[in-house]
Design a protein that fits this description.
Elements: H1 6-81, H2 85-88
């Protein structure tokens, strides 16, 4: 089978031995570089979360104001016609 060729076995063995030798050197170096990157990503996420919270709060205020204005207009129109406003708006 081609899977068990001498070339494949030797290549796999060389990769395994190379990884075992380089891993103790590379893992601490990668971990040292990964920590600041992880902290920066978390910080960016927190900033984005806070900004989106502000944005949604402002949007909620705008929609709430619009709803109040529409209810007031509907009540005013109903009063002008003489229809009780409670029949026009469900609360």
């Amino acid at each position: 089978m081609a899977l068990f060729d001498k070339g494949n076995i030797l290549t796999g063995l060389a990769i395994g031995i190379g990884s075992a030798i380089l891993a103790p050197v590379l893992i601490p170096a990668l971990a040292g570089a990964a920590k600041p990157l992880a902290k920066a990503a978390i910080k960016g996420g927190l900033v984005l979360y806070d900004k989106s919270k502000e944005t949604f709060a402002e949007a909620y205020e705008v929609v709430d104001d619009l709803i109040a204005e529409v209810k007031a207009e509907v009540e005013a129109e109903a009063a002008a016609v003489g229809v009780p406003a409670a029949d026009k708006i469900e609360k």
